[in-house]
Amino acid sequence: MNTLSLVGLAILAVFLKCLPTILQFIKLIKWSATVPGPTIGELMENAKKGQILNWFKELRAKHGPTFRIWMGRDLMVFFSDPEDLKQLLSNNNLLHKSRNYSSLEPWLGKGLLTSSGEAWHGRRKLLTPAFHFRILSEFKEPMEENCKILAHRLQEKCTGEEEFDIYPYITLFALDVICETAMGIKKNAQMQSESEYVKAVQRMCHILHTKAFSFWQRMNPFFKYTQAGRERDACLTILHHETNRVIKLRRQMLEDAKIQTMSDAEKSLDQIGKKKRFAFLDMLLISQMEGRELSDSDIREEVDTFMFEGHDTTSSAISFAIYLLSQHPQVQHQAYEECKAMEGSEKENMPYLEAVIKETLRIYPSVPTYARSITEDLQVGKLTLPKGCNISILSYLAHRDENIFPEPEKFDPTRFLEKDKNLHPFSFVAFSAGPRNCIGQKFAMLELKCTLSYLLRNFEFLPAKNFTPNPLPELVLKSGNGIRIRLKSRN
Question: Cα(218)–Cα(144) distance, rounded to whole angstroms?
Answer without folding.
Answer: 40
